Amino acid sequence: MTQLEQVKKAVAFLRKKTKNFQPEIALITGSGLAESVPQLSNKITIPYTTIPGFLRSTVPGHTGNLIFGVYKGRNIVVMQGRFHYYEGHSTKDLAISIRTLKMLGVQKLLVSAAVGSMDMKLKPGSLCILKDHINFMCNNPLIGNNHEPEFGPMFFDLTEAYDKKMRKIALAASKKAKINAREGVYFAVTGPNFETPSEIQMFKKLGATVVGMSVVPEVLAARQCGVSVLGMAWVTNMGCGIAKTPLSHEETIRETKKIVGKFKTLLEILFVKL
Ligand code: HPA
Q: Is 133 among the catalytic positions?
């Protein structure tokens, strides 16, 4: 089966399950952030495992559900839990969910993630609104797409990978929600190990603000098919070597638990304003 056939199969299944619900805004919740989703009405929860063509998430802290619902008149879909390259999925497969969302009607994608920070003004608990990224995964989900124009053009511009208008709204909303937020550049690594202190210093010199193991494959697939993106990277730790203690996934989950409440407040504003 081609990926296009796979996506069409998932779309047909989801349309049937949701009685043709057309989501406008999609949210992907990163590590430990699944509980940040505001209360949706007419909620329909569909486990990834039941969706034909979808992948399965295997990481603790990543619940695997697609949630459809309405927030103050806006049609929302949430990917509660995401897929990662380091789980062994090909980056190409990571595009399946994004292309499925696009085909269902999504126009705006809100991507959230836990990150390590290289900026002393962005300590744990702070939010980095992404203004750009550096793809250091040495991989690209769009390779081999030339026979599937439905997914968008092969060669496309990334001057504004992260939508300027949405960034402005997110910064204002963060201020309202009393969140320490700044714009910054996301540096994408494959993981699964955390970085070395020397790598962190190199990333910083290259112009990065935060580092993480996701976001970029999803953003590339979304931008290719014309979906606007807002990237929200929550700082759970300072980068290796800047942090005073060794890094761990447990720390990431523990820190995101402290973030859940303010992220929910932020999303309640964003779902209305975006
Ligand atoms: N590095 C990479 N990914 C991360 C980090 C980090 O320090 N913290 C949370 N996700």
A: no
The reply to whether 62 belongs to the active site is yes
Q: How far, in Å, is the centroid of ligand 1 from the Cα of 177?
A: 24
Q: Are 208 and 186 in contact (CB under 8 A)?
A: yes
Distance (angstroms) between ligand 1 centre and the Cα of 116 equals: 4
Q: Is the pTM of this model over 0.85?
A: yes
Mind listing the pLDDT tens digit of every residue in the chain (274 residues)? 889 999 999 999 999 999 999 999 999 998 788 889 999 999 999 999 899 988 876 666 556 899 999 999 999 999 998 889 998 898 889 999 999 999 999 999 999 999 999 999 999 999 999 999 999 999 999 998 767 888 999 899 999 999 999 999 999 999 999 999 999 999 999 999 999 999 999 999 999 999 999 999 999 999 999 999 999 999 999 999 999 899 998 888 889 999 999 999 999 999 999 9
Q: Is residue 214 annotated as part of the catalytic site, yes or no? A: yes
Give the span between the Cα atoms of 173 and 97, in whole angstroms.
Answer: 27
Q: What's the Rg (C-alpha) of the chain?
A: 17
**Could you tell me if the CB of 65 is within 6 A of ligand 1?**
no
CA of 72 relative to ligand 1 center, distance in Å: 34
φ/ψ (deg, to 5) at 103: -70, -25
